[in-house]
Amino acid sequence: MIRFIAARLVKSVFILLAILVLNFLLIHAAPGDPAAVMAGEAGATDAKFLADLRERFGLDRPLHVQLWTYLADAVRLDLGFSYRQQMPVASLIWDRLPATLLLTGTAFVLSLVLGVMAGVAAAARQGSWRDSAISTLALLFYATPLFWVALMASLVFSVWLGWLPAFGYETIGGGYTGLARAADIGAHLVLPATTLGLFFMAVYMRMTRASMLEVSRLDFVKTARAKGLRRGVIQRRHILRNALLPVITLAGLQAGQIFGGAILTETVFAWPGIGRLMFEAIAQRDYNVILGVFFVSAAMVLLFNLITDILYVVVDPRIRLTGGTA
Amino acid sequence: MKSFWRRYSGNPGAVVGLVILVVVFLVAVTAPLLFPQSPWQMVQRPFLPPLTDAAFPLGTDALGRDVLAGLAHGAWVSLAVGLVSTVVALAIGVPVGALAGYFGGWVDDALMRFTEFFQTIPSFALAIVLLAIFQPTLAFVIVAIAIVSWPPVARLVRGEVLSLRTREFVEAAVLSGQSSLTIILRQVLPNALPPIIVLASLMVATAVLLESSLSFLGLGDPNVMSWGYMIGAARTVIRTAWWLSFLPGMAIVLTVLALNLIGEGLNDALNPRLRRRPE
Amino acid sequence: MSLLRVENLSIALPKGADRPFAAEDVGFDLAPGEILCIVGESGSGKSMSANAIMGLLPEGLDVVSGRILFDGGDILTRTEGGLMDLRGARIAMIFQEPLSALNPLMRVGAQIAEVFEAHGVLRPAERRTRALELLREVGLPDPEQAIRAYPFQLSGGQRQRGMSAMALALEPEILIADEPTTALDVTTQAQILELIEELRRRRGMAVIFITHDFGVVADIADRVVVMQTGRIVEEGLAEEVLHRPRHPYTRALIDAIPRLSRAGEPSEAAGETILKVEGLSKTFGGGGRLFGASRVVHAVQGASFELRAGETIGIVGESGSGKSTLGRCIVRLTTPTAGRVLLGGDDIAHLSGAALKASRRRIQMIFQDPFSSLNPRARVGRILTEGMIAYGTPHIAARTRAAELLELVGLDASAMERFPHEFSGGQRQRIGIARALALEPAIIVADEAVSALDVQVQAQVLALLADLKARLDLSMLFITHDLRVASAICDRIIVMQRGRIVEMGPAARILRDPETEYAQSLLDAIPGRDHERARAAL
């Protein structure tokens, strides 16, 4: 098991390095001078400034030396400088990362728990009205653009009904502390987390349902029935546990999508996370920030993947005991 | 073919999906005829509410542009991007998956590490990076979407080929002197086709969603009217003119829903459980 | 007095099936402590009839008439709750494939303890002790270890013993065994049959044993029910049915079983050496992967033998003996790790490109599974001509030849225009044989070529192979796990065990009087041998 996780860790490191190389290549493949690219469009047209940049980043040196410098910087968590915001990219991201982790983590857990529960409820009574209702709802969520649900939800629940705050992370100038502050943040979190989670809830629900139905056709379920076990026990102990394996794999693969979705949700709700940061950077063509956020979100995805891998290993003894790399 | 159609039409949702898609398709191809004027042109006063002027049944937006014309032209963009980017993604994913699955060994290892890399990095963020750095023309939007959506194809095809590879009829083809290329094209891929078709129909749906998200963020082709752009442009006036965000969103939902329903219908029709061997 | 009585049981198949009923008007009695075998070919309805007793019919199949009398009532009228009280406690069941019949994520001990839990028997602590006792009773070598094991950590035979422990947990009056040994090797099968016999004796339990194998019937049955396409055609004491079958179908089934004694002396016609295998080894795994080394398996180790023109050599062994890998190395579907395969002057093991292609047409293969050996999307005509076209035969000449081949294997030339799924298993196997002959090979490697077929079809295909071999002057390597089949067609036999050739010699001698203990144990394990000897003595 330790070997399995170690292998995954090594792989993650390789992927991170590969992303850095990709970033580096993108900067150089971009139309125009890399210095101009890094400096951003406006306010950086002054020739002396560009020359300074070239000097500082060694843009006159051979490409592989530049790559090496770039990687060495990145390993020291130096992701470059944002000339738009006059701040190092790493500290811009560092300031906003907690908000994004709160949002994506909540949405992930919410969608996984509710999605699996809905999937189980639907599969347990295949063909019933309950199944039809859940499946139809999932189909709808699955077809709805994230950013549009977010907009509509803020329109209905904030603008029209006034139940929940429409944007931000907490009430500005609210002066809350302790539990009151947590409750305030919680209230702000409801709409972003729910609208971000809906699509993924649909994904997990559909997967759980399909997987439950698939597993319930397997021979060992018949064995369980032949033992005289009750339906509920068979569902829980035999079908669900086996059906969860592909759901866990999928959840790992979907982690990246959740970070992608967060860019949209944070934009709509003005949530001060790295997604919002990226949106602002797109508008300003602030490439160092865009690439920095891209790199950090990839790192987050790898972390999520590692967690789901460990979860998988805990559930499946075949990997735990053989150290296989399945 | 007949039995395919019978099984497909046995799923009412799939039929509804097909009807919706045909309507969207007709709107898309007739848009230049029905709305020959550029959808960017101001035609009436701004913020004309829907159902007030018979000439502009869905009203106008913040710059006085015809919403209905925008929706019609947007349909063309959505479908074109969805279909073409899926074709491009298949053109990358099918060969990668087929080669990995058929040859195995280090070819498989190398190709799958490559695929895994693309599957691990957040695809939406990568698409943003690509479009932010390069010029967001329609063609490049398509390429960017294809680049982030081929890995599932490669994995699916690899899995199918891997299991077909060990089937005895493929081994018989090896023994009968057929070349690897012939075997992949004539023996293996035709048998892997049904799941690829189903996945492709779902990929079109995902690509439509992806395109709308990108243009919502302002990363679409600035010369092309699309549903995502319309929502993005109307976002700031949502309190006063909510329908400007609502209508294009409904268009996206209906189109994507239709594509998903078609995907499910295809799945039922192409992969019936009945096809298993009789016991 | 009967313990269980099935009366006029009919089970409907879903609409659109090839016949209206899975089982029709089925009736039989089961006495306490008796072993009743239900025999039939695939699709005869034997399994469905037994499943109905447990109320475990697959979805879409329903009992439409009849009664199943047990314990003073009709099982068919019981509610789901009433059935639950019955299942596992009073009637228990074991299945064909013990790996898929066990939950892969649960330890064996927990799966046994679950039976007690389901019926509220014993306290949790006692359940474990009792599970251990059961595992010991079914003869698992290390019960302490087995109770903590997951199914994937046990061998096929051990899993089936574990399944049996589960079934016996609450001392049921009836055990239903649905082809419980079909997926196992002969020696393991013999052990499981012995176990069932012994449990019956010790516990006085009645057994319904479903099988397609009359050899198994001869070994354990007290009484027999023979089923054909959903109906019972014959019923009686095992001795009676086996020695004096009344129904023509039963007679045909029994006659179709190949007799071990049939093996003759090696044919004198055997000419010069046509294929020479020298020190062939194949090792799987070990390095080659980017992350984590895989386990190393020595599938074949140092195999050497010669095949002479016109001769048939049987390669026999249990699963994992390396017999299939050896065959695949010889036709070069797998590249051997070491050794040579000399065909004429060429070493197939080391050829590549055009030279390999040129040699390859001289040695062709017939496969096991008639359902996966033909491309489902290709018409038979294409399947037969593809190889010839790849070797440069003009299209029209290839089609003419394909039609001849179809007639040669006993099919009509019109089959060319049809798809594989329109044929039965036996017909498909004939098409597979025609395909192998299309390139006019000198040698045919048949890998378990009749193992997936019902016994009557198997006999026909074996006869066809023998006939073709004589007419076309073929040499053959016949890989099989079934010594009976080997005896029917082979001149010489090679016995393999764990990757090595342990014995080689004339078929008649090996089947009568093998030199190695292993070959002897394989022979002893063949079901129905005593019956065959008794019959021969008559």
Structure characterization notes:
The complex is a heterotrimer of chains A (326), B (279) and C (538). Helix content of chain A is 79%, strand content 1%. Chain A has 326 residues and is mainly alpha-helical. A two-stranded antiparallel sheet of chain A has the order 1-2. In chain B, 73% of the residues lie in helices and 0% in strands. Helices cover 38% and strands 24% of the residues of chain C. Chains in contact: A-B, A-C, B-C.
Stretches with pLDDT under 50, minimum 5 residues of chain A: none
Strand percent estimate of chain A = under 5%
Separation of termini of chain C? 34 Å
Task: Note the quaternary state here.
Answer: heterotrimer
Q: Taking Cα atoms only, what radius of gyration of chain A do you get, to the nearest Å?
A: 24 Å
Q: If helices are DSSP runs of H or I spanning 4 or more residues, what is the number of helices of chain C?
A: 20
Alpha plus pi helix count of chain A: 13
Main pleated sheet of chain C: 6 strands, mixed
Average residue pLDDT of chain A: 85
Helix content of chain A: over 70%
Total strands of chain C: the figure is 20
Outline the biggest β-sheet of chain A: 2 strands, antiparallel
Order of strands across the widest beta sheet of chain C? 6-7-8-3-9-10
Form type of chain C: globular
